Amino acid sequence: MWTDLGLNLDNHDALLENLGGAYQSIFMSQEHRPEGMGYFDFVMSEAHGLRIQELRDEQEAGRKIIGSFCVFVPEELVLAAGCTSVGLCAGADFAQEEVEKVLPRNTCSLIKSFFGFKLGKVCPYMEVSDLIVGENTCDGKKKSFEIFSQMVPNFFQMDLPQNKAPMARKLLKHEYEAFIAKLEEMTGKRIGLEDLKQGISTVNAKRNALARLSKLRMANPSPISGLDALLINQIAFLDNPVRFTEKVNVLCDELELLVKENKGVKVENAPRVVISGCPMAIPNWKVPAVIEATGAVIVGEESCIGERGQRNTTDASADTIDGLIDAVVDRYFKIDCAVFTPNQERVEHIKEMAKNTNADGVIHYGLQFCQPYIMESFSVEKTLEKDGVSVLRLETDYSQEDMGQLSTRVEAFVEIIK
Ligand code: BJ8
User: Fold this and answer.
1) At what angle do helices 226-235 and 193-216 cross, to 10 degrees?
2) Residue 289 to residue 235: CA distance in whole angstroms
3) Contact 364, 333 (CB under 8 A)
4) Contacts (Cβ under 8 Å, ≥6 apart) of 335
5) Contact at 8 Å (CB) between 63 and 82?
6) How far is residue 391's CA from residue 351's CA, in Å, rounded to a whole number?
7) Which atom of ligand 1 sits closest to the CA of residue 308?
8) Long-range pairs of 407-415 with CB within 8 A, sequence gap ≥ 24
9) What residues contact residue 18 under an 8 Å CB cut-off, 6+ apart?
10) Ligand 1 mean position to 272 CA, how many Å?
11) Whose CA is nearest to atom 2 of ligand 1?
12) How would DSSP label each residue in 348-417?
């Protein structure tokens, strides 16, 4: 299968070896993990195995696979068109020498990583995709997509607004309509009202399950580690959405019992942290692992792989296609990514999350060279501290070189907030 997909077998083996080692030491060494995590461990063990086979089987049955890099690409529309959505963001350095031949060194790790996965031919999700959608968000992504689009045969560019003005909403609707047209052209089938309703309902159910999980983390002690909760949010971009929702709900049933029995993954009153900032794609577990190694527990992620990406459902009550598209636009227009300006809602959301989760502090996670999030981190820190919420601003990349320094800073922060 890997040869068929055009993967480089040696590179792919090397990646899996590293990934497997990291997974064992970070996830499997945790104590008091809920039994329901067994499913997510299984998904991870088959992320480069059975899941790819499943996607290829779907393709054989006529479904198209749509890969994307941003939570602004609506899964509702992809499902309505009878296609399957997969996330392509990557969380590890790969083939960096090759990458720096086509991108400047001062590009964020997330962008460099998916270029590395493409150049090193190690990502089966990228290779299995019938269409890859890139979005005009930060300058790094939009300019790098000009290069990336030449490296793949099947690229679709989506423009995105940069502010929340009425004209910006019109642009978003226009782009979603263009995306629908592209999907319909690929599948040769018009999206009907019921298709769109079904797509919305499937994605709403997934978001409701994730919201249920978020709520359970508000308990003290938290019934699940931040690492496991992050993993679930990461898997949300890869797994079959209906099966995923069912398994998250099964896990939540178990967590509800643990909360009732006052059982937690860490001791009661362990320092509670909200992590906020850039998305963390698989296998980027570095900072959460450092935080939880101090004995603190992460109780929420204000991130696109977390709360920012999953909050708010789509209203499915309209009885025309145009009405439903409007509802999709309304839901996505609320996403408070740092590429928007002004972006005051994001700070308000972080404050709200810190309050709801009873967090003792917020750790702002900025990927080096990510101007939108790093620039915004200054006002986030100022506003939260004015409200009495302690903030630690971290700037890092995907390398392991700063682990010592990160640990020292996080330990000192946790000492202060506990
Ligand atoms: S909606 S956060 S998924 S764009 S880390 S590439 S911003 S320089 S990922 Fe994102 Fe969509 Fe926004 Fe969410 Fe640029 Fe920053 Fe790199 Fe980033």
Assistant:
1) 170
2) 17
3) no
4) 71, 72, 304, 308, 309
5) yes
6) 11
7) 13
8) 407/290, 407/293, 407/294, 410/287, 410/290, 410/291, 410/294, 410/363, 411/294, 413/361, 413/363, 414/271, 414/273, 414/291, 414/294, 414/295, 414/296, 414/361
9) 92
10) 26
11) 337
12) HHHHHHHHHTT-SEEEEEEETT-HHHHHHHHHHHHHHHHTT-EEEEEEE-SSSTTHHHHHHHHHHHHHHH
Q: Which residue has the tokens 């922060």?
A: 413
Amino acid at position 289, single letter: A
Per-residue pLDDT of the chain (418 residues; tens, 9 = 90+): 999 999 999 999 999 999 999 999 999 999 999 999 999 999 999 999 999 999 999 999 999 999 999 999 999 999 999 999 999 999 999 999 999 999 999 999 999 999 999 999 999 999 999 999 999 999 999 999 999 999 999 999 999 999 999 999 999 999 999 999 999 999 999 999 999 999 999 999 999 999 999 999 999 999 999 999 999 999 999 999 999 999 999 999 999 999 999 998 888 889 999 999 999 999 999 999 999 999 999 999 999 999 999 999 999 999 999 999 999 999 999 999 999 999 999 999 999 999 999 999 999 999 999 999 999 999 999 999 999 999 999 999 999 999 999 999 999 999 999 8
Q: What is the length of the chain?
A: 418
Helix residue spans in 46-192 (DSSP H) = 50-60, 75-80, 96-102, 109-119, 124-128, 139-151, 166-187
Closest C-alpha to ligand 1, atom 15: 370
Which atom of ligand 1 is least distant from the CA of 109? 16
User: Which ligand 1 atom sits closest to the C-alpha of 304?
Assistant: 13
In this prediction the pTM is 0.97
- Residue 310 Cβ contacting ligand 1 at under 6 Å: no
Total Cβ atoms within 10 A of residue 143: 15
Burial class (CB in 10 A: 0-12, 13-18, 19+), 167: exposed
Neighbouring CB atoms inside 10 A of 298's CB total 26
